[in-house]
Amino acid sequence: MLLDDPRSDFGDARRRRLGMPPRRVLIAAAVAAVPVLLIVLQIVASRNGFEGPLESLWSDYVGRPKSVSMPWAGLALALVGLSWRRRFVTVGIALAIDAVFAVGRVLLGGSVTIGNGAVIALTGVALVAWFGWEGKDRRNALHAAALGALLILATKVGDVWLHITVMAGPNVLDRYVVLADHAFGQPSWMVGQALDALGPVAPAVLHWVYIELPVAAMVVAAWQLRRVASTGVWPTHYLVRTFLVLGLVGPVVYLLFPVVGPMFAFGPDGHGLQIGDYWPRIVPPLDPHPVALPFDNATPRNCMPSMHTAWATTVFLHSRRAADGSPAPRWLRWGGAFWVLATLTATLGFGYHYGADLLAGIVLCLTVESALRAPERGWDRARTGLVAGGAALLGALLLTYRFLAEWMAEYPVPAGVLVLSAVAAYCWAFYSVWFARTPVPSAMDTAALPAR
Known about the structure:
The protein is mainly α. The protein is built from 20 helices and 2 strands.
């Protein structure tokens, strides 16, 4: 449902000719895989003493939600498949349920937290649509509800995966990455010192932007899907597809290249295992013979690549244009630009990432976006080249950071020029293929056609 548009010409007949299973079979398999994955991760979490996805999901329904904004972001995404009347009714029910839960918590001496109502209302929409609605209303509601649910479930899976990165990577490679970052001018130390000099307001704003990235994604996705309820036609590509695929692909690299970040490996949050108290005041001295650093069993190894950078770049790309290729509203374009710049500043200024992480995140985003964008165009030479080139460049970056870090630190200018030029060239190639030309008309341009 997410990766195959029902109006594409890649139908079941063509699938049979290529020996592929019908689309309905693939959808059923994908739907069945979700609970299996949640159960497996819950077993892993229970055996290792941390909260699993089913426990976290249960808290969203009847306990204290782990996130306030995520349930409501998921519900907001589900609303794009409903009529305006049904949207108002759904939001009203969600607010009423949240109010009841909030009052109950206060009476029991707990804190005021919302989110239960959004999850319950989203579930209710799916059930009512499945059993009570028909035709276009049913299809749109179920499709949108699935997107909202996947957005919430993805965060549950991600939380467990962070624990798995700790189990899989007892040693981290921060010594190598900090050497590689000499070629980029140690941006984490530079931005961290700048934020310290700005006072409390700027860091507070950046922290909010950083943690509320899903809300920005929801706003852009809701704008892209705003005509779905009235036309019954879904665009062939939209932000949620890239967002979810990045969440599947990117964290795999955490296992291959475990890194914890400057504030942990070189700062005060290393639980006694940090190399020293350097960040952000003092750039650590060059280590000519770096080795892997044994680290604690609590800090996630989730730096390489920077997924916040990849996701924020996705928000930026999808805030540029409408599905028909026309410019997006000015408020959305400025909002997307602000969000990506603020996110990049936060990732560096709070010591969460090195500059090398951000470059890898950008390349990963553009590679995945190239694989998914404009599916009606097919796998022509340009798309194939971008995807293959992006995968090769990401692999080259990881190998360079690991095996040429000493050389990058010893010769920072030529190393920095080479790496930055390669990334810039790939960005230019991406722009030339997807933005410099008039895009192929998408399904949203044929909204007048009856939905099948």
